[in-house]
């Protein structure tokens, strides 16, 4: 399992390195504070729904229906085949993300950001993993089949979110929207 995680990390790292080569002809678009927060909230919703759905089989709506702000429920929400300890841990991660999303919404002072339509089905996630490996895996990758497969996707998504938040926090210009100092 460790080998699979290492291969996936190296595969994704290679793509990230290649896509971040600086070229004088390319400049990064300037995102507004609202764009940064929208993306941050979308990542938060993805993490929240991935953890809550795989732990309970239901979306975050079961804990706080207002959190979605009118957004669609996630596609492919299903309970994973996990042992009780792992299930409890990922449910706690989901609850932490719910609290984080609530705090972010509160900081936005009523400017609700609706939950985007998220596809967290095993087929969609399996397609992502196939792309990372550059080929169709047999048997198909199923993040809900076992804790080790679930943990790979959890690590990739939380790592991506952490990298974004680390960079985005410094770029948020409006002091009223600055969430982390």
Describe this entry's structure for a reader:
- The protein is mainly alpha-helical and 181 residues long.
- The chain has one domain (32-171).
- Helix content is 57%, strand content 0%.
- It is built from 5 helices and no strands.
- It has helices at 2-19, 33-56, 84-107, 122-133, 147-171.
- The radius of gyration is 17 Å and the shape is globular.
- The model is unreliable at 12-21 (pLDDT under 50).
Radius of gyration: 17 Å
- Along the chain, the helix and strand elements come as HHHHH
- How many discrete domains? 1
Distance between the termini: 37 Å
Low-pLDDT windows of residues: 12-21
User: What is the global morphology?
Assistant: globular
The biggest sheet, with number of strands, parallel, antiparallel or mixed sense and barrel status, is: none
Helix content: 55-70%
Contiguous helical run count: 5
Structural class comes to mainly alpha
InterPro entries: Pigment-catalase-like (IPR052965)
Keywords: Signal
Signal peptide: 1-19
Pfam family, one: Ferritin_2
Question: Can you lay out the helices and strands and say which pair or pack?
Answer:
Elements: H1 2-19, H2 33-56, H3 84-107, H4 122-133, H5 147-171
Helix pairs in contact: 2-3, 2-5
Provide a brief overview of the structure.
The chain is mainly alpha-helical. 57% of the residues lie in helices and 0% in strands.
What attributes characterize this protein structure?
single chain, 181 residues, 5 helices
């Amino acid at each position: 399992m460790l080998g699979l995680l290492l291969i996936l990390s190296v595969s994704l790292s290679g793509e990230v390195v290649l896509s971040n080569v600086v070229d004088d002809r390319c400049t990064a678009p300037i995102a507004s504070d609202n764009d940064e927060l929208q993306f941050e909230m979308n990542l938060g919703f993805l993490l929240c729904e991935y953890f809550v759905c795989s732990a309970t089989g239901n979306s975050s709506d079961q804990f706080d229906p207002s959190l979605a702000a009118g957004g669609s429920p996630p596609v492919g929400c299903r309970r994973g085949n996990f042992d009780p300890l792992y299930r409890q841990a990922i449910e706690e991660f989901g609850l932490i993300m719910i609290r984080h999303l609530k705090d972010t919404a509160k900081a936005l002072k009523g400017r609700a950001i609706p939950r985007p339509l998220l596809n967290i089905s095993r087929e969609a996630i399996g397609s992502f993993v196939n792309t990372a490996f550059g080929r169709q895996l047999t048997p198909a990758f199923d993040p809900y089949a076992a804790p080790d497969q679930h943990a790979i996707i959890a690590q990739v998504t939380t790592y991506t979110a952490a990298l974004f938040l680390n960079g985005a926090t410094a770029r948020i210009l409006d002091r009223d929207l600055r969430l982390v100092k």
